[in-house]
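so i finally got all the pieces together for this one. its three components total, 414 residues if u count the protein bits. some of the lines might not be protein, just check the labels. i wanna see the whole assembly predicted at once instead of chain by chain like last time, that was a mess tbh
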Amino acid sequence: MLIDINNCYVSFERVFNPRLNGLPVVVASNNDGCVVARSNEAKALGIRMGVPIFQIQEIIRKHKVQVYSSNYELYADMSARVMQVISSIVPEVEQYSIDEAFVDLKTYPDEMVPPLARRLKETLAQWIGVPVSIGVASTKTLAKVANRLAKKGPGIKILSDLEALAILEKYPVEDLWGIGHRITGRLNTMGITYAGQLLRMPPAWIRKDFNVNILRLVTELKGSPCISLELEAAKRKGIGSAKSFGKPLSVLSQIQEAASNYVAACASKLRTQKERATILNVFIQTNYFSASSPQYSNSIQVCLPVASNLDAVLIREVNAALRKIFRPGYAYKRVGVLLTGFVPESQVNLNLFCTPETAAATSAQTVMDKLNERMGRGTVRSAAQGFKKEWKMIQRKVSPRYTTQLSELIRVKV
DNA sequence: TCTGGGGTCCTAGGACCC
DNA sequence: TCTGGGGTCCTAGGACCC
């Protein structure tokens, strides 16, 4: 079973702002750049996923489209609530993304499945206030197909393998889970436009001319599971952060301030998975959309002398790396950091030529983490993370963090 | 004027080993 | 005229996902 929140971010906004119901609503990406979520009314106006906001200003004005900045603190918390409700009803749940969960129904008899699906849908509507679509089939890939059918119809679709065969005859290949625009292009030039056609191609040919993922996909479409349920969240193999600035920056120290904040956020995530990084990548770039201004981008990889997950250590390394790749005279648009080469916290190789991390440094970090957990993110932080925040992103219309900040609780007039 | 962010996996090719 | 066979590991680039 695949449970998917309809128009996820828009639905979360509507929970706290019901007057948005029935209106065209879109949620924008960072810096209010592109459309990342659309209500059905917005979709009906022809607003495409990912389109830059400035290109649809006309439509927005004419149809009074409600544009919201993305509020990930709110969305992450709402998503966690949805997942919690699902887990309270069914035991085997894989959270696949912020708005999707796969559920294992192996232990449920067939006749139990429709009432279970209805119960999940109704409970999420009543307890959280969000609409979901539910698709059920014999493999993950077919559940994705079923979910898509559910979205167009009554909200729940239980798809048998037999019915799937018929449906796939007129199911465009680009709508399949795992087929993107590049593979679609290649398939289309071969005359393959529907999933049913792909299904009839010889497996050996698919393996040879494409790759093992496409072969798995086709096998799943035939009803044989190849992709299993991942009940335990895997540890990240890389943790990165890269964001566009609200405005172009030319001063090294301002870029360093941004990068210090990004790497501190990465380090915090790394600590929660109890690992340390041995490799740090840093990159900067100018605005590649701006054809008229001089372009420059560069990146650097640093192998840390001793693996670390401490803000202070990583901020120092990031700033040193930036000094090496920064060139004056450019208007920079983006900086990014990436931590990789993780080792368990308890298995750090020391280095003959370096002083190992002191116990004091580690416990200082622990105290900071505890304070921040209790008092809110960023309560205690490195001075390098700055105060001016010249780099901060544009959020013209961001809704309150209703569920995670006491000062932003919803007000109700009785 | 204005164009997102954070991930995973696979493959080909290069470099190396005995 | 003729120049082996069987591997591993790493990386960049490509493709995909939400």
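The first helix of chain A runs from residue 8 to 16.
Residues 11 and 130 of chain A are 6 Å apart (CA to CA).
anyway lmk what u think
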